[in-house]
Structures are given as C-alpha cells and as structure tokens.
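User: Some background: our group keeps a shared notebook of sequences we're curious about, and every so often someone picks one and asks for a predicted structure to add to the entry. Today it's my turn. The entry only has the sequence so far, pasted here. Could you supply the structure so I can complete it?
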Amino acid sequence: MTTTTPARTTARLDLKGLAPEVSAAMGELHRAAVRAARAAGVEPELLELVRIRASQLNGCAFCLDMHTKDARAQGETEQRIHTLGAWRETPFFTERERAALALAEAVTSVQDGQVPDEVYAAAREVFDEAQVTAVIWAAVVINAYNRTAISARMVPGAYQPAPRS
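Assistant: Of course. Here's the predicted structure to add to the notebook entry:
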C-alpha cells in the first residue's frame, strides 16, 4: 500500500523574511557565480541544465519548477528537459553539456566520495579552468538553494521567469 503526502500550499518557514541578511548573501553568491560564468564564457543555457540536474538529484520541487521555467524561457526544448535525468542514454546533449552534467552530478553527490579524477579530466577536455570553476560554483550554489528550499518546504508553482529582453 502506498501512501501519499498531500501537497503543501504554504512553506514551513519564511527563511528570507526571518534571516534577510543570509538570504541577501545567498543572492549575492548566486549573482557572483553567474557573473563568473558569464566572464568565463559559460552559456546561461548550460547553467540551467546544471541547476535542473542537481535539483533532480536532490528532489527539490521548488527549484525544478523554477529552473525548468527559466530553461524554457531561454529556448530549451521540452525533449531535453524531459530526458535530462537520463542524459547519458540520449543523443540530445553535446560533449560540453555532458561534461558539465557529470561534474555537477559529482559535486552534488559528494556523499559518494570525492569528485572523480576522470570526471574532472573530462570537464577539462572541453572547458578551461575558469569555465570548470564556473560550473563547480553553479553546482555549489544550486545545491545550497536546494537544501534551503527543501528545508523550508518552499511551495513550487508560483515562480515566473523575468521577461526576456
């Protein structure tokens, strides 16, 4: 017999309201990581794939809702979003994307051990050091946000991406 938990309509905690300085610092960390990625030449679309994949691994519904919407707003296809969890078995992702996804998975799953040398080496074949650094920071930041959203039980659904300029 399977039991289901009813969907929440309110968050457990308002972490932003209760600790605004910490929330602001997290926001600045995110913005700094985005600036570093932009300066290194890492595509925003690739960063969204990293965010979605880490959020899948962590089971963060709030971040999945947000970043799949952001990815779609940037032109990502439904097919790639739907198959991201099985990216190794599909022909839909580039070598560069595959390296970033493997690195993001390794950073997300550090409880399994360190980031393997072969994952890092594969990333270095397609990214320079600044780009690898940017992918790592993107994975670290989304993992922190996943843990925040999961802990506070943030409710998915209301987020809408900013209009594209």
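Suggested note for the entry: The chain is about 65% helix and 0% strand. The mean pLDDT is 94.
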